[in-house]
Each structure stands twice: as structure tokens, then as C-alpha cells.
């Protein structure tokens, strides 16, 4: 399947590598099919979730552990069914990361990366199904560990 990307241009992805988000992503409900991509020779711990339907829709995903974060949350029965999950080990959890251009006044001192821990992306890697779990209030366990 040929995918157009504002960041990578045109590239081919095997159909069996596509990830379907049956409900889309909040704010992007029309985008249901995505590919996980990264530049050759770069660290695959940060990847791009590129929409197959809209070249302008792409999200940077990272493993929460790369920030020293481990957290657990509960998926509803409906969410588990949507993902086709029968065991927690089938799920890949990632957070959307975005570049923050700076806080008040656009100060470079306040620029950096921001990760959305309140809406992780959950993907059943075997079934290639995904969803974004919006956590309305902190009902999950968060453990932060400093890297050695």
C-alpha cells in the first residue's frame, strides 16, 4: 500500500503491517488506518504513527519507559473487545509526544518535548488494532524511575 506523508513523502507499507483504529483517534475520527514508521538508521524507540488517509495527520509515539515512567490503567470490557485483547502482554502502550515551541512569550528556555500521559495509545500488536485511551482523571498507578 502506498502512503503519502508530509514528513516522509511517499512510501510503501505492506497491508499486513497497517494498524486499524476502528474509532479513529480523538479529533481525528476519520483517520482509521495508520502505519508505524521511522527513518532508517534512527532509534526505533520513537516512531511516527502516520495516517494512511491524510498525509498531514501523523503523531510521534514513544515508549513511556523512555521517560522513566511505568504506569498501569484499566481498559474497559468494550475497549478490550475492540482491541481483541485476551492478555495484557498483547498490548503495546505508547504516548504521543510533541515539540513544545515555548511557553509564555515563546521563550526558548521553556521549549522542549511534552508527552501526553493522559491519553496513551494502546495497540494489539498481533491483531494490528489500536485505540487511544483517554484517562479523564488519574486512576492509574504512576511510577517514575531515574535512569542510571
Short description:
With 148 residues, the chain is mainly beta. The protein has one helix and eleven strands.
Tell me about this structure.
With 148 residues, the protein is mainly β. It has one domain: BH3618-like (Roll), CATH 2.30.290. Helix content is 5%, strand content 41%. The protein contains 1 helix and 11 strands. It has a 7-stranded antiparallel beta sheet with strand order 3-4-5-6-8-9-10. Strands 1-2 form a two-stranded antiparallel ribbon. It has a two-stranded antiparallel ribbon with strand order 7-11. The longest helix has 7 residues. It is globular, with a radius of gyration of 16 Å.
Q: What is the helical fraction, as a range of percent?
A: under 10%
Rg estimate, integer Å:
16 Å
Please indicate the percent range of residues in DSSP E strands (runs of 2 or more): 35-45%
Contiguous low-pLDDT stretches (5 residues minimum) are none
Which structural class should the secondary elements be placed in? mainly beta
**E-strand count:** 11
> Judging from the principal axes of the Cα atoms, what is the shape?
globular
- Output mean pLDDT: 84
CATH hierarchy, class? Mainly Beta
**Within the largest sheet, what's the order of strands?**
3-4-5-6-8-9-10
- What are the secondary-structure elements, in order, as H or E? EEEEEEEHEEEE
CATH superfamily: BH3618-like
Intertermini distance: 42 Å
The assigned CATH architecture is Roll
Amino acid at each position: 500500500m502506498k502512503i503519502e506523508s508530509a514528513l516522509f513523502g511517499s512510501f510503501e507499507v505492506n497491508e499486513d503491517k497497517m494498524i486499524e483504529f476502528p474509532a479513529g483517534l480523538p479529533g481525528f475520527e476519520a483517520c482509521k488506518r495508520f502505519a508505524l514508521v521511522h527513518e532508517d538508521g534512527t532509534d526505533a524507540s520513537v516512531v511516527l504513527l502516520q495516517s494512511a488517509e491524510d498525509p498531514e495527520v501523523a503523531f510521534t509515539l514513544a515508549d513511556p519507559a523512555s521517560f522513566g515512567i511505568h504506569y498501569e490503567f484499566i481498559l474497559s470490557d468494550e475497549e478490550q473487545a475492540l482491541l481483541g485483547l485476551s492478555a495484557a502482554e498483547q498490548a503495546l502502550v505508547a504516548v504521543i509526544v510533541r515539540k513544545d515551541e515555548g511557553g509564555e512569550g515563546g521563550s526558548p528556555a521553556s521549549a522542549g518535548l511534552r508527552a501526553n500521559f493522559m491519553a496513551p495509545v494502546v495497540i494489539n500488536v498481533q491483531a494490528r488494532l489500536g485505540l487511544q485511551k483517554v484517562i479523564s482523571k488519574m486512576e492509574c498507578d504512576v511510577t517514575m524511575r531515574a535512569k542510571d
